[in-house]
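Appendix B: complex inputs.
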Amino acid sequence: MRLTDKEKAMLNGEEGEIRQQAIQALYDLAMFYDVEEFVEIVGCHDDSTVYAGEAQVAFAEMLAEKGAKFAVPTTTNATACDIEKWDRQKHDVETMSATRRIEAAHVKMGAIPTWSCAPYHIGVAPGFGQQFASAESNVICYYNSIIGARTNRYAGPLELLCGIAGRAPYFGLHVPENRHAQGLVKLGADIKPEYFTDESIWNLISYAFGSIVKDRVWALEGMPARGATNEILKQFSATAASSGGIALFHMIGVTPEAQTYEQAFGPNKPEEVVEIHLSDLRDAENQITNPDVTDLDAVVLGCPHASYNECVMVRDLFRGRRVNDNTNFWLITPRSVVDRLKDSGVYEDLVRLGVEVYSDGCILEYRNQKLGTRTMMSNSGKFDTYCFAMRGLQPVFGSMADCIESAVAGKVVKEAKPWRS
Amino acid sequence: MEKLTLKCKYAVTGDVRAELMWCNEPMSFWGTVDPQSGLIRDRRHPFYQQNMNGKVLAFPTPKGSSGTGLIILEQVRTHCAPAAIINVRSDPVVLTGPLIAKRFYNYAIPVVNLSEEDYMKLEGAREVQFFTDRDEIEVYF
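Resulting structure:
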């Protein structure tokens, strides 16, 4: 491997034991993949934050106690529970205390305490073309695809070692030549432009796209650039990363490395072209929704965490009506967004409507049994993909507007759609 | 015992000899393995209800969530980790646990990659020997 003087010093232990161990593990990885050099990263998103067992907590505490410090700005992912309001969420003391230990260890290492799976909503994302290390699947997909920053699919806690070393092995999606599309998904003529006024179609196309593409780099042609807000693109990224394991996609005419077809493919020709139709969207919805629900115990929004803009949209969609007495409505948003909501008065509006606003926690850690929740609804393709495996119940999928109408009625209310016929 | 020597590429080295568990299906640790016992809980997987504690685990490719790294570290802590891992193609997700165990806890879970052809030769083998200083494994039938 070609090493800089700084990297040699780290490997020799001149920057302390932890930085030496971190870069040794990355060096082992580089050697295995025949990587010739490290690349400096501008930042790291630390995903080892949702409590998953004592080894995770012990590892972070060991690093912190031995004086580990992040070499680059490092944001923290969601935790298991709201760090303040864990008891109202019916989390147990064990989860709370493990979360507190995770919080302390990561802050001691110098992390920026964002506690969010949507750091891009709070102004701490990398820029176009910048090298980065992330291990949360939706963040990986959003940073690579929507921003054009460069990260591989790291697994916690490997990204922590990149953050401590300030480097990643230069391979995979760090390398521009590996980022061109290899295959193409096209929209069939039966998926009409006017259908895109409902944002849930983006989630369904994304689910179908991920199912076809799996973990490869492919392009998608035929999506409208109009209406592609950051929130809609967030949902697209999160869902594609869940149904397929996608780390980078190119939406032609929308995403920055695919402003044209030629830019998306570079020197490649599509090795395969797949067309998707309304029937694929129907199949996608059938995979992630539960058709047998009428009475609704809970509506959960904020997978990935809601932006300020989405919180305002939620308030406005209620049009002054309240959440039904038989239904819980949870909205999860980064704590720095909560501060802004309080500044503007939107927080008070949401509370008056019966919305429970939480921070930090991952909604997939929802304690449905302790809360007595048997039926749920969300607008998230990611949540609805993982919820059955993690929580033992299949939620209803709908648009944000469907979710609010359903919360008011206390029953599932879904608008008729061409793909639902 | 009949012995077969196969060339391989080591991601993590170690001197280990243990009993083999072999399958020809991709595998995720997250949501599949009980990190307190090493038991495989996924009803759809050929290893269902087998325990990987102290065994050489062979599956062609990893799949699924990036939570796998933390599961293997938890298995090291609770003493139910596999003794070694054999793949055709390892990804960084499955390497995370063994790389951290080696560099931070001085605990070796050797991981090797074999060619597809050699991987299929392992079916029915009883034990596998790994090395720190040789680019090969010894397979015992």
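Residues 5-177 of chain A form a domain with the Aconitase; domain 3 fold (CATH 3.30.499.10).
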